Every structure is written in C-alpha cells, then in structure tokens.
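Hi again,

Forgot to attach this to my earlier email, sorry! This is the prediction with magnesium ion bound. I've pasted everything inline since the attachment limit keeps bouncing my files.
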Amino acid sequence: QAKRTGKNKFMLFDERIHDVFSKKTQLSNELRSAIEKHQLRLQYQPIFNLSDLSCEKVEALLRWHHPALGQISPETFIKVAEENGFIIDLGEWVFEQILRDFAEIRQQFGAVEICINISPLQFSQPAPIHQFIAQLATLGITGTHFCFEITEGLLLEPSSQVIDILNILHAQGIKLAIDDFGTGYSSLAYLNKFKIDYVKIDKSFINGITENLNDQALCKTIIFMGNQLHIKLIAEGVETQDQETLLKEMGCQYSQGFYRARPASLTG
Ligand code: C2E
Ligand code: MG
Ligand code: MG
Ligand code: MG
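Structure tokens for the complex follow:
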C-alpha cells in the first residue's frame, strides 16, 4: 500500500515536471512567431516628477497577448526569451516600435524621456543597439530623450565590450537607470565607476514603506545615498498617496506606480 502511494506520488511529481517543461518549450517556440503574428505591443507608464507632478518620463513595458493563454506576464516571457536567445529580436522590435511611437508618446503623455528596459544579453549582441543609435541620427532625434534601464549585474564585472557600449550611450546623451535597485547585489562600487543618472527603488521596498520601519529605513538610506552621489531616485510601485508623501519627504525625486497611473496603450 505504502509502496503504491510512493510510486503514485513520484509519478505525479514527474508528470508535473514534464508539464512545466513542455509548457516552457511551447512558449519558447510560440514567442518566436509572436512578432510576425502581431501579438506584441508596448504600453507606457508615466513617471512623475514630484516637484511639480509633471509626467516627465514614461517607461515602455512589453506585452504579449497569446491567442490561447491570453496576456502572459513579461516576468515569464522575458525569462524564456533570455534563455532561448530571442531577447535580441524582441529588443530590436521594442526599439523600432518606440521610434514609431515617439511623436505620439510625447503628444499623449507630454513626456520628454522614454525609459527602455534592456536585458544584459543585449549588451553581448549589440547590433540592435547600434542600429537604434543610427536611426536616431537619421530621424534627427537626440539621445537625451531616452534612458536605458539596466540591472546591477551588468555593471559588476563588465567586459570591455559592455564598457564600450556604455561610453557610446553616454556620448549620445542616452541616460542610464539602475532598475530594481537593492534586489540584486550588495556591491555599491559600480555606482562610482559609471555615470548613472537614476536609481529605481524596487517596488518590494515601497510596498511596506508606510507600516514597516525596516522598509522605511532601507528607502531612506537608498535615497540619502543617491542624493549624496547626485543620482536621482525613482520609486517604482507607488500605490498610495501616503507612500508618495513619505517618499517625497525622504527626498525622492520621481514617482511611478498605480497610484498615479497604470501602464497604458497609445490611444491614437
Ligand atoms: P520593471 O522594469 O521593474 O517594470 C516595472 C513593473 O512594475 C511593471 O511590470 C509594471 O507594470 C509594474 N508596476 C508599475 N507600477 C506598479 C504598482 O503600483 N504596483 C505593482 N504591483 N506593480 C507596478 P510588468 O509590466 O509586468 O513588467 C515586468 C518586468 O518585465 C519589468 O520590470 C521588466 O524587468 C520586464 N520587461 C518589461 N518590458 C520589457 C522589455 O521591453 N524588455 C525587457 N528586457 N524587459 C522588459
Ligand atoms: Mg524597468
Ligand atoms: Mg523595476
Ligand atoms: Mg521590477
């Protein structure tokens, strides 16, 4: 009896692994055709300057509408795309779509700057980044209208290729933001080695900021550090007026989150 239960359990477990695995390969294959099938689109989420509540920037956020599964979270499909290498093509599509949307973004949101999430892998196959810069020149748009959001990991032990690209971006006036700050590594040395314009405080720290004294202390410390280093702070995941008021009091310059605005498609 016990033996049979054991075996059943094992089979169940095994089937579940198989299930997860085949779902992933399926997604991986379908993602490759998502571009041609027009299943991808971008939404834009406003980022407000806390000094005057103007929408100074928007963050471009990728959306995939799967015909059978519906909306799939980018947390899921970006990971898949990084594993199968398709992130390079996705990244290229994002650059192109943002340039197509550029005039309308500025009209609809009044924003002067567009923040683009860049996977570390895009720095090892940088042709689309170079194409994007060439396109800007062709269109007569200056790099100062863009900010690349990267994660801490990229700057820990950067290759000479990564450093070359960062220098090119800087020369173009393209700004640099550290996304999800505080969730990755504890090293801070990179903050002084590179010209970093913004640090985005991860929403996991903002969540409890009005109740949890430890989250409060962490946010305060990150904001103090940024201000000392002349790096501006963007709080992500701000969901209430109280959170925003507290962040402003602490010296945070920008607010992004559902309290003020959710990611939205262009209406035009
Ligand atoms: P992220 O760059 O940290 O983006 C912020 C995420 O927080 C977005 O999730 C946004 O919708 C969500 N968010 C904004 N305000 C609030 C709030 O008040 N409360 C809560 N709970 N969430 C809020 P989203 O759109 O699901 O994107 C998830 C992640 O996927 C992004 O995190 C980013 O790492 C990645 N991603 C999205 N688009 C792209 C892209 O074009 N390229 C790359 N490489 N990654 C992308
Ligand atoms: Mg981001
Ligand atoms: Mg983030
Ligand atoms: Mg995040």
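Confidence is low (pLDDT under 50) at residues 1-7. The radius of gyration is 21 Å.

That should be everything now.

G.
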